[in-house]
Specification:
The structure is a single chain. The longest helix is centred in the middle third of the chain and has 19 residues. This protein is globular. It has 3 helices and no strands. It is mostly helical. The protein has a domain of 37 residues.
């Protein structure tokens, strides 16, 4: 399995008229989740979210690939 870099957002039972709309919905939810948090709280939320999603993905090779791509140009 390889890391999927194509837009892959969806919501069961919801129809979208534009391909980017589900990604916009996620971005809005992410921003709302960070609203009114301090910088330290935001960093903690991000760390917890990364670990939760990494556990959901579970495949170490995919996670290593994602880590490598995320670190590029940083």
């Amino acid at each position: 399995m390889t890391l999927n870099l194509a837009p892959n957002f969806s919501e069961a039972g919801k129809r979208y008229f534009r391909e980017f709309s589900p990604g916009d919905d996620f971005y809005e939810a992410l921003i709302d989740t960070h609203r009114d948090l301090s910088d330290e709280q935001s960093a903690l939320l991000n760390a917890k979210l990364i670990l939760l999603l990494a556990n959901h993905i579970g495949e170490i090779a995919i996670l290593r690939c994602a880590l490598q791509l995320a670190r590029e140009d940083v």
